Amino acid sequence: MKDAISIHDYLFDMADIGDWEGEEELVTDKINAVYHAVWSALPENITPYQVEQLLPAIWNELRGGTVLLEADEDELIDWALAYVRQQLEEGVPETDAADEEE
Q1: What pLDDT score was predicted for residue 97?
Q2: What is the C-alpha separation between 36 and 77, in angstroms, rounded?
Q3: At a CB cut-off of 8 Å and minimum separation 6, what does 34 contact?
């Protein structure tokens, strides 16, 4: 199902990042590198709904602090891959429960 989804729908440009005190390009490059690494590691049978849950969750975890500025790209990728593995092991729903009720 992964082939029905495009990573490009989730990537950021500098206008999406918000204010990072002049470091918007760095933050954009890092988060997009993280997304690309995670994308490559996602299982082929992942559902669009699971991707919709996982990728924004990575941004939500990272955007509130300075880790995107302080950590190097490899550290961020390692963290994100572990985070996604954990989320998948815990059972990210394959569909939205509200969609199933319709």
Answers
A1: 53
A2: 9
A3: 58, 62, 73, 76, 77, 80
